[in-house]
Amino acid sequence: MAEIALLDGGLGQEINNRSRADTHPLWSVKVMFDAPDVVIDVHSDFIEAGARVICLNTYTATPTRMERHGLGDRFEEAHVTAARLATTAIAHAGTNTGHTAGPVQIAGCIPPLVASYVSDVSRNYAQSLIEYRQIVDQQKDSVDLFLIETMSNIDEASAALDAVRETGKPVYVGLTISDDLSNTLRSGENLEDVLTVLLPRKPDGIFLNCSSPEAITRAMPLLAGTGVRFGGYANGFTSIDSLKPGGIVDVLEVRKDMTPEAYADYVLHWIDIGATIVGGCCEVGPDHIRYLANRLAASGHIISNLG
Questions:
Q1: Are 104 and 144 in contact (CB under 8 A)?
Q2: Each residue of 137-147: pLDDT tens digit?
Q3: pTM for this one?
Q4: How many domains does the chain divide into?
Q5: Residue 166 contacts residue 133 (beta carbons within 8 Å)
């Protein structure tokens, strides 16, 4: 059977769900400043559930977003703190899950610069490259690899990939696709066209994330033909349409049918197609990852990191 890299789940959303504070537009980054132990606990729970790759809690820690919400002077602090908390969680977490291989890796988080899902507000390639270089520079000495996540358009994905490639560290590109099963990015750009642009830049892998599991299932065969490692991790929202730039995630509704069992069924199907990078996005918590790890082990797969 295959060796499967098992990532963590929806880090920011899980942190938000455990926080007692009002939701902030910078969501889990604000919680990290005010209640860092919550972040350590969430990281630790994902590790103990079986994840071999955990992502820095910096999804909204971009210069643009932090400036917009009055925390621009804490940009460097956010990245330093996120790295420290991830390292602390690995040291504290029990890792004897019985079916894992390899140490836990820390992944740098390279997110959309302005907003999730809404490609119209994105920077152009040149502007994005400048800002991504700032983020990469903050993270490169603290991480084993980089996950570029939730890219909704070609320009932003290309700039993020080019910025990370300058470090020489492994980099995996995640694209968010429309939930209408059209195999297009949120920008409307055709997924096949996007892959044609990104693959010559030689990412170590491609994945689909923060989209419905149904949309990811529909598009997964297109990744199977790329010749690079591929996979996916879905969100558990009914729809993302109501989340606007600068808004808070409380406006989004959680799917009641996205049980650990149901989510694992989707993921095992992706693996049947050839996926070897899996995990979870928003509203996929430690219970989902634990159940998935057990299903993978029961199927004879080896759970590993991205080494």
A1: no
A2: 999 999 999 99
A3: 0.94
A4: 1
A5: yes
